[in-house]
Amino acid sequence: MLHSIPDEVRIVLEREGIDCDYRKGGALYCAARYPEQEASLRQYLDKLYRQGLNENDYRWLSPEQLAQQIRIAKPYGGIYAPHVATLHPAKLVRGLARTVERMGVKIYENSAVTQWQSGSLRTAKASVRSRWVVPAVEGYAASLPPLGRYQLPVQSLIVATEPLSAATWDEIGLSHGQAFSESSRQVTYGQRTADNRLIFGARGGYQFAGRLRHDFDLTTSEIELRRYLFGELFPQLKNIQITHGWGGNLGMSRRFKPHMFCDRANGIALSGGYGGEGVGASNLGGRTLADLILERDTDLIRQPWVIHQGGLQALRAWEPEPCRWLGYNAIIRSFVHEDQTLANPATAPWRRKLASGVAGFMEGFMQ
After folding, report:
1. What percent of the chain has pLDDT over 70?
2. Handedness of CA 65, 70, 76, 82 (dihedral sign)
3. How far apart are CA 140 and CA 362, in angstroms?
4. What tens digit of pLDDT does each residue of 228-248 get?
5. What is the mean pLDDT of residues 196-222?
6. How confident is the model over 258-314, as pLDDT tens digits?
7. In contact, 136 and 113? CB cutoff 8 Å
8. 339: how many CB neighbours lie within 10 A of its CB?
C-alpha cells in the first residue's frame, strides 16, 4: 500500500502533464558518522523483516555497496529502499491546482478561515456551508480549535547549496535521483535537485503553546547547523555557498502516527499527523478520504491508520502546556547531546552508552 504511492503519483503526473522533477531513485538510509548508527539501522532492518518485508523492499548495503550510490566520509553501511521518489513539492501543488481548475473546481486563496464547525466554515467576508468539511491543515491545526489539541506544530528547516559542478557530483554520487538520510535522531535528509544543488534538511523546533512560525528566513545558527551536518558527510562541501534556506510547519500527532477518519454524523473528514512525510502521505490520505466519503469498499479504508469510530475523540490529545514544551525540548536536548557525544571518537564507551540510553529513553517516553 505505502510502496505503491510513488507509482500512483507518477501515473497522475503523466496523465495530467505535470512537470515537477519527479525521479524514482529510491532512498538511502546511511550509517554515516559513528558506529552506533550501523547497529541501530540493522535493528531497524530486522524489525522490517519481522513485519514481512524482504530484500526487495529494504536491502542492507555494505560500505562498498553504499559507495556505489553515495560517497560519504565515514561509511558504516546503510539500507536501500527502492520504493521512494523525489519531486519538487511546489511544482506538484501548482500542477495539481491547474488540473482541478480545468475540471471546473474553484480554488479560493487568501481567504483565511476564522471559525469552523460541522457543516460550515467562516471567513472574514463570508460563510460557506457544505455537507462535508475536510480541514486539511496539518501543521496549522493550532489555528483552528480544537484541532490543535491533536496535532502539534513543529518545524523542519532546509538549506540549498549553489549548483555543484559535475566533478563534485562525481565525488558525491546520487546520480539517479536518490534521496538520503543520515541515521541520527536529528532527523536529517537530503537529495540532489534537478538543477544540481544539494538540498539538506533537519529537524527544527517547537514554540511554546504551539505558536506557528511564520518567518522562515533562517537564522545564521540554523543555517550553520545544517552546514555542519552535511559537511560531516561531504567534507568537500563545508565551505560551499548556501543560496537558499526555508522551512515549514508540520503536524505531529500524539502517537507519532498518521490518522484518517470520516465522521458521518458531523460531516467531518480528516487526514493528518504525517510527521513531515506529507508529500507521499497526503496522496494516500486524499484517496482514503475519498473512498470513506463515497462509501467505497476498498483496501484503502481497511488500513490500520484509518479510524472507523470516535472521530476526533478517538485521537490521543497532547498534554497541556507547559508539559508539551518542556517535554519536547528535553527530548531535543537529549538528541543533540547524544549526537555530539557519539560524533566524537574520543568519547569513552560508557559515556557513549549513557548518551544513547538517555536519548532512547526520552524518545520512548513521549510515545
Report:
1. 99
2. negative
3. 26
4. 999 999 999 999 999 999 999
5. 91
6. 999 999 999 999 999 998 888 999 999 999 999 999 999 999 999 999 999 888 888
7. no
8. 20
Q: Is 252 exposed, middle or buried (0-12, 13-18, 19+ CB in 10 A)?
A: buried
Q: Tell me, what's the pLDDT at 360?
A: 85
Q: Which of 210, 235, 68 is nearest to 152 (CA)?
A: 210
The hierarchical CATH code for the domain 108-150+255-314 is 3.50.50.60
**Per-residue pLDDT at 331:** 86
CATH of domain 27-82+155-250: 3.30.9.10
The answer to whether residue 367 scores a pLDDT higher than 70 is: no
Distance CA 12, CA 104 (A): 18
Per the listing, cell 535537485 goes with 193
d(CA 72, CA 172) in angstroms, rounded, equals 7
- SS3 per residue for the chain: CHHHHHHHHHHHHHHHCCCCCCECCCEEEEECCCCHHHHHHHHHHHHHHHCCCCCCCCEEECHHHHHCCECCCCCCEEEEECCCCECCHHHHHHHHHHHHHHCCCCCCCCCCEEEEECCEEEECCCEEECCCECCCCHHHHHHCCCHHHCEEEEEEEEEEECCCCHHHHHHHECCCCCEEEECCCCCCEEEECCCCCEEEEEECCCCHHHCCCCCCCCCHHHHHHHHHHHHHHCHHHCCCCEEEEEEEEEEEECCCCCEEEEECCCCEEEEECCCCCHHHHHHHHHHHHHHHHCCCCCHHHHCCCEECCCHHHHCCCCCCCCHHHHHHHHHHHHHHHHHHHHHCCCCCHHHHHHHHHHHHHHHHHHC
Residue 300, φ and ψ in degrees, nearest 5: -60, -40
Separation between Cα atoms, residue 226 and residue 244, nearest integer Å: 12
> 0.70 exceeded by the pTM?
yes
Is residue 321 over pLDDT 70? Answer: yes
- pLDDT tens track for 132-172: 999 988 988 888 888 889 988 999 999 999 999 999 999 99
pLDDT at site 33: 86
